[in-house]
Design goal:
binds adenosine-5'-diphosphate, Dna Ligase, domain 1, alpha+beta, five-stranded antiparallel beta sheet, D-amino Acid Aminotransferase, Chain A, domain 1, four-stranded parallel beta sheet, 3 domains, 9 helices, Rossmann fold, single chain
Length: 301
């Protein structure tokens, strides 16, 4: 098969390992710089251009779209879908997963365990909002933050009010969330491929920090997940419409709570923690599922 990896980071571990895994399994693979793809949308037959050439005979693409280029990146993925190329994660699903609020709304409708979360616009509603999520301490999150940036723990009502007021004053959208203390600075990343969790790791925040992101100094160790955690992760990925997903779960006293579903989960941490060839599993999934025009939405919606 001819596989394209859409990535702006040809040298990063996730990209290089996907390339290796595809080659090992006998495929023709190229890393395509997402921002150098340009689209012909006017003609009846949509085409994709790249550095002066036409990209036309790909069987599948693996989108690795950085959060800073979500709009352009998902447009490129959608255009491939329009051309009938199988994308391992579809553009619509990637867009959904990039908006934390939209993701939580979709998950809540289907009864997935979630931290109690509030969303408001007017500073007049801050008081009730804090009460609604169970009172302080509360976690305040920028809607479009990643890698733990823009996630704040406010211990007291006063602190929560001032942080929320400050964010609202800056005109950015934020979520207010119940603080899951019993997670004790850790979360579980479940790596989903298709309808299976193929690997899981527990990330533990460094001393004095509640955010377990590896980018914030968190440490990853393998963990055994419960059947309920497994089911929750698979269901969450399915609701988002993602074939490949990193589902982040907080272990709470009332069971697994989904915090976030990532559409371009990194491979380095999870492969190191589990010793598994997850890139190989992604390629295997493509072998089994990629057919021309098989993308469910074909970019609609
Ligand atoms: P990002 O997308 O920026 O990584 P997250 O929502 O995943 O933001 O939050 C970053 C980290 O903060 C999580 O990995 C988790 O360790 C911690 N965290 C987030 N929300 C909560 C919460 N409601 N209760 C306890 N810890 C949380």
């Amino acid at each position: 098969m001819k596989i394209g990896i859409l990535s702006q980071e040809p040298k990063c571990y996730s990209t290089t390992h996907l390339v290796e895994a595809a080659k090992e399994r006998g495929h023709d693979v190229n890393v395509i710089d997402t921002l150098r793809c340009y689209m012909n949308i006017t003609s009846a037959k949509p085409s994709m251009h790249y550095k002066g050439e036409l990209l036309y005979d790909y069987d599948a693409i693996i989108p690795r779209i950085g959060s800073s280029i979500t709009f352009y990146g998902t447009s490129v993925v959608r255009h491939f879908e329009m051309m009938g190329v199988f994308s391992v994660n579809e553009s619509v699903s990637i867009s959904r997963s990039r908006d934390k609020l939209r993701s939580l709304q979709l998950l809540s409708r289907k009864g997935i365990g979630l931290p109690v979360t509030g969303f408001a616009r007017s500073p007049d509603d801050i008081d009730d909002l804090i009460t609604m999520v169970g009172g302080p301490p509360v976690v305040i999150k920028l809607l479009e933050g990643t890698q733990g940036i823009g996630v704040v723990l406010a211990e007291t009502k006063g602190a929560a009010e001032s942080v929320i007021e400050a964010f609202m004053g800056l005109n950015v959208n934020i979520l207010i969330q119940e603080f899951i203390r019993e997670a004790a600075g850790s979360d579980v990343r479940c790596f989903v491929v298709g309808d299976r969790v193929v690997g899981a790791m527990k990330r533990q925040a460094k001393e004095g920090e509640f955010r377990s992101n590896l980018h914030r100094g968190g440490e990853a160790v393998p963990t055994k997940i419960t059947p309920l955690e497994r089911r929750t992760a698979v269901q969450a990925a399915k609701i988002m419409g993602l074939n490949i997903a990193g589902v982040d779960i907080l272990r709470s006293s009332r069971g697994p709570l989904v915090m976030e579903v990532n559409s371009s989960p990194g491979l380095k941490g999870i492969e190191a923690a589990t010793g598994k060839n997850i890139a190989g599993m992604i390629i295997e999934f493509i072998e089994k599922n990629a057919r021309p025009n098989k993308t469910k939405t074909r970019g609609k919606g």
